[in-house]
Amino acid sequence: MNAVIDVQGLSATYGFSHRSPRVLDGVSLTVARGRTMGVVGESGSGKSTLAKVIVGTLGAASGTVSIEGADVMKVARSQRRALRRRVQMIPQDPYASLDPRMTIGRTLLEALAPTAARATSHRDRIAELLSMVALEPGAASRLPHEFSGGQRQRVAIARAIAVQPTVLIADEVTSALDASIQFEILELLDRLQDDLGFACLFITHNLGVAARVCDEITVMRHGRVVEQGDISLLAEPADPYTRLLVSSVPDPEGRFLHGPSRYDTAPQS
Amino acid sequence: MTDVVLPTTVGRSRRRYPASLLVGAVGLAVIVLLAVLGPVLWGTSAASGSGQLRAGPSAEHWFGTDAQGRDVLARTLVATRLTIVMGVVATALAVGLGGLVGAVLVLSGNRVRWLGARAIDLWLALPPIIVALAITAIFRPGAVTVVVAIGIAFSPQFARLTNNLASSVGGKDFVVTAHLLGVPAPTVLARHIVPNIASPVLVLTSVCLATSIVTMSGLSFIGLGVQPPAIDWGQLLASGLRDIYQNPAGALAPSIAIVLTGLSASLLGDGLVAFSEPRRAQVRSRRADQGSPSATSLTGEEQSAATSAGDDVALHIEDLHVQTANAPEGQMLVGGVSLTVATGEIVGLVGESGSGKSITAMTAAQLLPSELGWRAKALSVAGHPIDPRQAPPSSMALDCGVVFQDPSSCFNPARRLGAQLTETIRVHRKVSRREAERLALDKLREARVSEPERRLRQYPHELSGGMRQRAMIAMALITTPKLLIADEPTTALDVTVQADVLRLIKQINHDHDMGVLLISHDIDVVASMCDRVYVMHQGGILEHLTSAQLRRGEVTQPYTRRLLEASASTALKNTVHVTSTIRGGS
Known about the structure:
The complex is a heterodimer. By secondary structure, chain A is an alpha/beta fold. Chain A has two domains: 1-86 and 164-252, Rossmann fold (3-Layer(aba) Sandwich); 97-162. Chain A has helices at residues 47-55, 77-85, 104-112, 123-132, 149-162, 179-196, 207-213, 240-248, 262-265; strands spanning 3-13, 22-32, 36-40, 62-67, 70-71, 87-90, 167-171, 199-204, 216-221, 224-230. In chain A, helix 3 packs parallel to helix 5. The longest helix of chain A has 18 residues, at 179-196. The two termini of chain A are 37 Å apart. Chain B is of the alpha/beta class. In chain B, helix 6 packs across helix 7, helix 7 runs antiparallel to helix 9 and helix 8 (233-242) packs antiparallel against helix 9 (252-276). Classes of the chains: A alpha/beta, B alpha/beta. At the A-B interface, helix 2, strand 6, helix 3, helix 5 and helix 6 of A face helix 6, helix 7, helix 18, helix 19 and helix 20 of B.
């Protein structure tokens, strides 16, 4: 398997002291081109910290992150920016991820040409990007507040794919959206991945959403990987924590209400 | 998915200029014009004496003359230039110095930033006038000293403002994304950070201009500022006051000038605040269609059984309308909602954000924000008929319990849980403290809160999210209400904790024969928990189903079907199990 992104033994802490608790503890995962790896876990499991370390906004205490075979922390400073550009992220909150004072076109231009000041040269590409996420070309001249949450999330996706990344990190991209709109965004991501072939790291607390889009899955708890493998492992999880997670997902028949309680079976933390 | 999605609003609404902005700008423009033209027009008359020393107001000298017989008005107009120039330079110095310190702190590491912020706090604790006095007292008095002193004295305000604002904007997702896209740091600063912090800094600048002119006049007044023969308003005020018994109007002219300038600059600042206020989020028009199909799926028999009013009805709502109260033709948020919750029944209200489900529930709990008004053919909560024109009966507080979505914002962080849990019964039932505590312990145990005795003496932040939600349920239970309204009680919780809390609500409903109105966006949650379910959409009830109908997928509305298809359990069932059978079979 030809891994586009390869994370090995990644550990990280918040804080200055070496005694600070580890929020990531020896996490390893690989994702191949055109595949989607889901990272699921509850709050505090370290899944968002993992995204921060991979995109480089938080330093790692130990471990390696390789993009297309190149170790991000070891490459020369001059190449690091180009390498980093190959990893893009779609943030969780569509209301905070767009500069409120920039038109959509200006936001997309920043992705296409980080230092350019005028949009004339890239107008066609911007229109193309907007049509890829099913927004009309006129959207380019509007400001973010004129769009709904789902439409803003489309813009954030367009911005992320503008640089033709090899890795796309989607951090809870649907959790701020209504159920029916979640559906559309997931379909859009799926279609774009078919067309562009990026590897996707899909971070979510929602197992239903993970089941819908992921090929493989990593279950995290307290900064550690609990279980990892093909998405079908959710049908028969080997680990008791994964089993608890799966059995806690509400179902119309109410079976989840009769499942094991967190306070009965899970170790107290 | 090839259809093109249009933005919700078309075109940009034109912004209106606030009156204070216009008045302030015009006032300052006049003052600046005077500063430019004053010495040219009145320079000679201000310098030449008329022979009438300390004369009172006359047609020739509107504000009289000074000790050397010079016209006070002309001198005040001439002094405008120096006063304004000094004010502007001092303000520019304060902005530049403060902005520089703020920017350096933003770009430096965590520790330096922390130390710098504390240093600024210390600096701010000293009143600017004291700092300015100390500086002018040490150096030779004069225009330059005053300007520098005022600039230094006012700079920490700007340092703190720019540091705080830039830190908060710098943590925003769009700045992080810009870094990921490889935008160089100085460009990020100029493109994203400066424009987003500019308006509060501008506002503070205009306020600082007003204050610095007043402060400088004060320093000149006590002789530490501008030295003769140069004149500014403070100095004129000082000489006017010396001659106040001979010519009372002499002090008036510079005073009026100082007040008008300060007022104009402050008005400009206020206007800028009003003008730069972020556009109010446009509330989408959720005008409910009057003839919305409601309650179509239940048979007449079931319907009448459910709505037969009497003692066994925990909640009865008939034809509820909620709208914004300010306009006569206010926006309709809920239109024509009717629902009932019988005693011992769990009824679900499901819908997406903006469907009106929470507003309906908050009307029932009589917790609507004051800007919303409601009317209904009938509203009865736990046997109390409620009239929109009267305050709800206080006994309703005992018969209706509410559990909110976010347990962390519903407790007062500064009070212990014990005091908050027992508040309702101590106020409404006048039970003793000891008895109230005993009851609270009972209810905490019932809500399966661990170590209930210790929890009573703890503050809300010491509990985990799940424990806090259990404590809130215990608080709602303490009066053993007839109706429990739970508004998204598990949305803020982790999935494994969610199951526990829902189980608890079901248990309580069973044990106390309590009516429960459960609001949720998750159709799986309502299907599993409830006896009957109302589906809300755009302020109206779209469909009314038994949960058995919902579970069997016997729904008539395409919207409800979409919700079912988008649910997590459907995804898990389809994808995971189908994948595993395919993989297992091949």
